[in-house]
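Duplicate of earlier report; DNA starvation/stationary phase protection protein input re-posted below.
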Amino acid sequence: MTLNSIGLDTEKTKELADELNQLLANFQLYYQNLRGIHWNIKGRAFFDLHVKFEELYTDANLKVDEIAERILTLGATPLHTFDDYTKAAKVPVGKNISQDNKAVELIVDSLTELLKIERSILESSDEANDEGTNAMMSDFITEQEKTVWMMKAWLGETV
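Output:
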């Protein structure tokens, strides 16, 4: 086993970086979805949702940067083209969504996909003794689970 400068197995960090790049691609699509529904939302819930969507896309933008920086910390290169993102993404694409329920459902569906990826990374980072990635995924998961609960509550549904 070869260790890198931060004391992690180089083979395992390469695998983690690949998984983080998949997460990065999905977060970029999620971010674009949020921008689109922020711009296009209509109806009686406009004022509340417009602000909420801005809050969510601002947070997603910060997470994109954190993920990319973690990939760099692990010694890899973050994906950075839309072509790469669309090839790797599993998050649904939301196009021309202006109706409140559809917008919130898109967020729930997107976060559900992100949570699957993050849980997989959490397992991999645990096996690699990578506390930095592990802590980041744990924080993301906790926050996004709460957002899913709130969005489902807004829809009148349970988790």
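The radius of gyration is 17 Å.

Merging into the original ticket.
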